[in-house]
Structures are given as C-alpha cells and as structure tokens.
Amino acid sequence: MKNALLVVAHPRRDSLTAQVAERSRAQLAANGFTVDLLDLHGENFDPRMTLEDEPDWTDRDKAYSAEVRDHMRRIDAADLIVVVFPVWWYGLPAILKGWIDRVWNYGFAYGRSKARLDGKRMLWLGLAGESRESYAEHGLDELLAKQLRVGISNYCGIKDAEVRFVYGTIPEEPASATPLADADTALGDYL
Predict the structure, then answer these.
(1) Helix (H/G/I), strand (E/B), else coil: 142
(2) What does the pLDDT read at residue 172?
(3) pLDDT range class, residue 66, cuts 50, 70, 90
(4) What is d(CA 55, CA 58) in angstroms, rounded to the nearest whole number?
(5) Is residue 140 scored above 90 in pLDDT?
(6) How many domains does the chain have?
(7) How far are the Cα atoms of 18, 28, 47, 84, 115 from residue 23, in angstroms, in the given order?
(8) Cα–Cα distance between 95 and 85 in angstroms, integer?
C-alpha cells in the first residue's frame, strides 16, 4: 500500500483550498493511497520557531520537540507528499512556511550525506487568485515554483517534485476552467 501525506494550509474548512484538499484526498484514495490528512490549522500547528526546534548546526541528531518529531514521523511514513495551499502575497501562508521551518529541520530533511527524504515524491498545489497571464507577465509563478521545487524539495533530497498552480481562484479574476476541475487535473496528471 502506498502512503500519501496530504498537507492543507487554510484556516477555513469551507474554503476552496479545503474543497481541493478533500477532492485530492478522494482522488489519492481512489488511486490506491492510504492518506494521512495533515490540516495544519485543524491540528493547531504552531508555526513559530521555538528554541527547542531551532537547528543546532553542531548536532544533526538533535532531539526536536515531541510535536515536530511526530510530524517528522508522518513525513517519513509517506511515499508521496501533496501540499495544498493558497498563494498569499505570491508565497506560502505563514503556517505552511513555519511548518517547513520547524519540521523540515537540520539532521532530518537536510544536513546528512544521504538525504533522508530521497525517493519520496512531492506535489505542491497552489491556489492562485490571479490569472495565469497575470502571473506569467511578472514571472511570479516561476519564482515561487523554483523556490518550492529546488529550494525546498530538491534541497531536501526529493528529486521527483512538481509545483502546479490553479489560477483565477478569486471570483473577480478570470478562471481558465473551474478551479476544482483544474486541481483534479493537476493531481491526476502528477499521479
């Protein structure tokens, strides 16, 4: 059985992000995955860096907090990591950035001669308010995609990583199709 960690970063359970996450969960299950749903807001994840979870560059085997070690176990158990998030200010929501900062830590996600996360697959699925054309005009989607794919996933040993955007998710912006269908296609194409 294949395991997927589905990470969701939105405070409202009735949001488009939550709807995309639920459809992603169903699609993953239909494709034979056991799905571990990690709702960062629902689980009250604290994105603030603590002294207990601050990297110790002299100790790659540092024992981080119990909360962080639990999240590390969930990542370890996953063959596939799918992150569903709204693109806010052309970047990650603070709770998701804090999850990366605290959990994808030195000695766990990076800092070893053999990458611990090597062999995993990862899909970043961002819901962007503006149109594809608006993002492309300024190259903002390319910047964010490179940061996520290269600066996080590849840096941590995940070579099979992709970033897909669902554009036009704000009602005032023109959508190429329905955002839910676009998200279904993005995940389906990746699987």
Answers:
(1) helix
(2) 57
(3) very high
(4) 9
(5) no
(6) 1
(7) 9, 9, 26, 11, 31
(8) 10
Torsion of CA 13, 18, 21, 27, to 10 degrees: 90
Q: Name the H helices within the chain.
A: 16-30, 66-77, 94-103, 132-138, 140-146, 179-190
- What is the maximum alpha-carbon separation in the chain? 51
Q: Are 6 and 35 in contact (CB under 8 A)?
A: yes
CATH code of the domain covering residue 95: 3.40.50.360
In Å, what is the CA distance from 147 to each residue of 9, 128, 155? Answer: 18, 16, 10
At 49 the three-state DSSP class reads coil
Higher pLDDT residue, 178 or 112? Answer: 112
Instruction: Determine the structural domain holding residue 79 and report its residue range.
Output: 2-190
Q: Could you tell me the CA-to-CA distances from 4 to 26, 27, 32, 174 in Å, in that order?
A: 12, 11, 10, 32
End-to-end, the C-alpha distance of the chain in Å comes to 15
Residue 2: partners with Cβ closer than 8 Å, 6 or more residues away: 32, 33, 34, 79, 80
Picking from 93, 34, 104, 96, the residue whose alpha carbon sits closest to that of residue 69 is: 104
Query: What per-residue confidence (pLDDT) applies to 154?
Result: 97
**Euclidean distance between CA atoms 151 and 137, whole angstroms:** 23
